[in-house]
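Quick illustration, no need to memorize.
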Amino acid sequence: MASVKSWIKAARLRTLPLAMSGILMGAALSYFDGGFQAKVTVLAIVTALFIQIFSNFANDYGDSQKGTDNQHRVGPKRTVQSGEISPKQMKVGMVVLIVLSLTTGIWLIAEGTKGLDLTTFLLFLAFGIVALIAAYRYTAGSNPYGYAGLGDIAVFLFFGILPVVGTYFLNAHQLNPEIFLPAISIGLFSTGVLNLNNMRDIENDRNSGKNTVVVRMGSAKSKYYHTSLIAIGWLTALAYVALRFQSVYQVIFLLTLPLFIGDLMKIKQIQEPRQLDPFLKMLSIATLLFTVLFGIGIMIAG
């Protein structure tokens, strides 16, 4: 029987701040536009965390089945590959997370679409199911898209655009085109975390047939790609503030800029891939801090 410690390890807690960032951004934007609902936001956070943990379980299981998790892997040792959790136990864990995700997700959609038509409810339900399928198919199943270099697109959509815009709509019952700018920011920062992960694991991924964007472009170009993701993310956030400026408080998120710049400068100097591992957690936390301060700023301004 797998220990509680092993399940916590499989949940990969350091990825959870990133899962919360898109939800918090969407909620803050809805508050700024007068449509915030606390119950909807809490349900969105819980559902996002369940889906993220399910994704981590599926990734653990999928990479072990493909042989990508092996003695050559640079990152933290995975639980299925190490034998801490058996494949059968992990499948049960994934089923439990699917049930939890659907339970809170349907509750979320029901609360967030009150007063709206059935089509809207069904559309968001479809989004939720697609998110679960995408989480599983990243590394598990036949022909996982993560092995074809499509992970960056998926992360951009499912960590940035969909959670920010979806949370905003379920709170405010409207869509403002300008909210796509900070949604792009969160999506690009999240893609940056994946890029660091893939830069760290480039050799093992290449040898295992996992053709990530990093494997395709090489380590040197991946650093320029990473800088571009962070830079464009900041530019889109600043563009939103410029378009919706009401108060100087809206720029307090600039306090996190040194964190991003400092990490970029250190990453540029790194030659050994395994040294990139701490920067995954650092970028996840920096993204969450960025989101919190961005949200506080626009909530004060609103």
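The chain has one domain: 4-301.
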